[in-house]
Amino acid sequence: MTKIENEKQYEWAMARVEELLPLVKDDTPTSDSNYIELVLLSNLVADYSEEHYLLEEPSDPAIVFGV
């Protein structure tokens, strides 16, 4: 998979990322298949999220700065 094309693929990828998270630790080698899959899927999920779930900028600057 080189790109998530639809919501069904996105949901599958999110579920798979959740399965992989407990298997990959800070000391997991970057050559580990779970590590590689987690990185690739995480990037695909992030790309899809940015494209389809953009957050709007707050209209009130006080919200941003907690004033």
Fold and architecture overview:
This protein has helices at residues 7-20, 33-52, 61-65. It has 67 residues and is mostly helical. Helix 1 runs antiparallel to helix 2. The longest helix is centred in the middle third of the chain and has 20 residues, at 33-52. It is extended, with a radius of gyration of 16 Å. The mean pLDDT is 89.
Biggest sheet statistics:
none
Q: What's the rounded overall pLDDT mean? A: 89
First-to-last CA distance = 44 Å
Please state the overall shape, judged from the principal axes of the Cα atoms: extended
> How many individual β-strands?
0
| Parts with pLDDT < 50 across at least 5 consecutive residues | none
Task: Specify the structural class.
Answer: mainly alpha
Quaternary organization: single chain
The succession of helices and strands, N to C, reads HHH
- Cα gyration radius (Å): 16 Å
Proportion of strand residues: under 5%
